[in-house]
Amino acid sequence: MRLEYFQLIDRIVDLKLADREIATEATVPTTNTIFEGHFPGFPLMPGVLLIEAMAQTSGWLVVAVNRFERMAFLAAVKDAKFRMFVTPGHKLSVEAKLIHEGSGYVITKACILFDGKPICDAALTLRVLDFPNAEMKLRMREAAARVGFPAEVPANG
Amino acid sequence: MSSTFDTIANIIAETCDIPRDSIKPESHAINDLGIDSLDFLDIAFAIDKAFGIKLPLEQWTQEVNDGKATTDQYFVLKNLSARIDELVAAKGA
């Protein structure tokens, strides 16, 4: 995770377009100023950032499904549950699956696992829009390369 | 009124916490019922699932923005019901 850049996903581990599924990896940094406040003497990864990790994972899936022509923007979070504490150094597995592809929006079910145990999950609604400008698309391409987004998105995962 | 309207009205009542008896065929989802675009995504999701269709929200929005259609054509509920019936019929054709 690069918390200072709000880039929470380290790499894409698996992308199955035919199944509309993605898996990513995100390791919580061992030190960060966030942990000085959340909480002093008891550092915990904030739940809102876990939601963001699920949203970014869902976002990469949407970008892949749309062949890097469109972008996902988080619109709603439902049924979010946080099942255990996440502390610095935790290596997290983040998974997302498209459960509905509407016109201009998608619904995903996403979850985070640690050592195979569920940590949190939620249903996310994301608006699917064209990239607002060329620079953003370029920056997203750079971010995609960093997380191992496939250069050629496979037709069937 | 058609069962399509009843299904839509029930979805709106449940999704947006609007009293069911205040939802009429002549109601405009935005202007009369105060449903915003985010809430309408929830409604669209429920409609898509209930009827096995994909409401073409982007196309409708584009047509309204381009002045080729009015919001009444898509968001007055009796008209929305008719559009859904058309989509269901097209799917089965």
Shape of chain B: globular
Number of separate structural domains of chain B? 1
Largest pleated sheet of chain B: none
Broad shape of chain A = globular
- Measured between the Cα atoms of the first and last residue of chain B, the distance is 24 Å
- Gap between N and C termini of chain A, in Å? 25 Å
- The neighbouring-strand order within the major sheet of chain A is 1-2-4-5-6-3
* Number of continuous helical runs of chain A: 3
Give helix % range of chain B: 55-70%
- From the coordinates shown, what is the CATH architecture of chain B? Orthogonal Bundle
CATH top-level class of chain A: Alpha Beta
Number of helices of chain B: 5
Mean pLDDT of chain A: 94
State the fourth-level CATH superfamily of chain B. ACP-like
Q: Return the CATH topology of chain A.
A: Thiol Ester Dehydrase, Chain A
Strand content range of chain A: 35-45%
Give the rounded overall mean pLDDT of chain B.
93
- Under CATH, the topology of chain B can be stated as Non-ribosomal Peptide Synthetase Peptidyl Carrier Protein, Chain A
What would you note in describing this structure?
The complex is a heterodimer of chains A (157) and B (93). By secondary structure, chain A is of the alpha+beta class. Chain A has a single domain, classed as Thiol Ester Dehydrase, Chain A. In chain A, 24% of the residues lie in helices and 39% in strands. Chain A contains three helices and six strands, in the order ββααββββα. Chain A has a six-stranded antiparallel sheet, covered by helices on one side. In chain A, strand 4 and strand 5 form a beta hairpin. With 93 residues, chain B is an all-alpha fold. Chain B has one domain: ACP-like (Non-ribosomal Peptide Synthetase Peptidyl Carrier Protein, Chain A, Orthogonal Bundle), CATH 1.10.1200.10. Chain B has five helices and no strands. In chain B, helix 1 crosses helix 2 and helix 1 crosses helix 5. Chain B is globular, with a radius of gyration of 12 Å. The model of chain B has no long low-confidence stretch (mean pLDDT 93). Chains A and B meet through loops of A and helix 2 and helix 3 of B.
